[in-house]
Specification:
The protein is of the alpha/beta class. It is built from 8 helices and 9 strands. The strands form 2 sheets. A 7-stranded mixed β-sheet has the order 3-2-1-4-7-5-8, sandwiched between helices. Helix 1 (13-26) crosses helix 2. The model has no long low-confidence stretch (mean pLDDT 92).
Length: 234
């Protein structure tokens, strides 16, 4: 198995079957690992009913543990591929971009879908979320390493040996894991390429990140705390 695609889910029943279908249409030789945090909406059951017959689709249902970073870490540990990618389940990241990321791994260790290199764009409608991402990345580039432009992408592909050398840390709760991962990858000397990408709005379901202004501000504070810790530790 050359390619593995990992998606962490929680209450993504409306999206998951279509996401699997589109991912396998664009990367038919890949395995797809769905790591579901025992979603009450029946996401795991949706995968089993519609994709249980397809050997390329593997389901991990976690009970008693939740969170994006730890789910990704479990998916990475279970993956058989030599080239791995992960993306969100809400279609703000299009599966059609996966072949571009995998192709880049012929020359680099880590390929990142980036909104902040020439040609990239944050096409989401809510301006608060767009401005919040811009602010977080300005702070990260200023205090950490300016050679990385999009520290909060969340859509990337990586060689297995690279992610074994710089693993995803599972103790984070939100997308700040990505700041930590990319910063450590750069410090470890991994070859990183950012590829222009247009981020979209969620197409179905409800966001898990900053659904209210209060939650959004709390998450921003968490991101800032992570950046400052990385700065002090370095």
């Amino acid at each position: 198995m050359t390619f593995s695609v990992i998606v962490a889910t929680y209450n993504e029943r409306e999206n998951i079957s279509r996401l699997i279908a589109e991912t396998l249409a664009h990367v038919p030789e890949a395995e797809m690992i769905v790591v579901d945090d025992d979603s009450p909406d029946g996401t795991s059951g949706e995968v089993q009913r519609n994709w249980g017959h397809d050997a390329r689709v593997r389901l991990i249902t976690r009970v008693g543990e939740r969170g994006l970073p730890s789910a990704l870490a479990d998916g990475i540990a279970a993956a058989r591929g030599q080239k791995l990618a992960w993306l969100d389940a809400d279609f703000n990241m299009e599966p059609a971009f996966l072949p571009v990321l995998f192709a880049a791994l012929e020359e680099v260790d880590l390929a990142v879908a980036s909104r902040y290199v020439p040609g990239g764009e944050d096409g989401r409608g809510p301006r608060l979320r767009v401005w919040g991402s811009v602010a977080a990345n300005i702070v990260a580039r200023t205090l950490l390493d300016a050679s990385v432009r999009d520290y909060t992408s969340g859509l990337m592909a990586v060689r297995r040996e690279a992610v074994e050398r710089v693993p995803v840390r599972r103790h984070y709760r939100h997308g700040d894991y990505c700041i930590d991962f990319l910063f450590r990858a750069r410090r470890a000397g991994l070859r990183i390429r950012e590829i222009p990408f247009r981020c979209l709005d969620r197409q179905a379901g409800e966001t898990k990140t900053g659904a209210t202004v209060g939650q959004f501000l709390l998450m921003g504070a968490t991101y800032l705390q992570t950046i400052l810790k990385l700065r002090w530790s370095s």
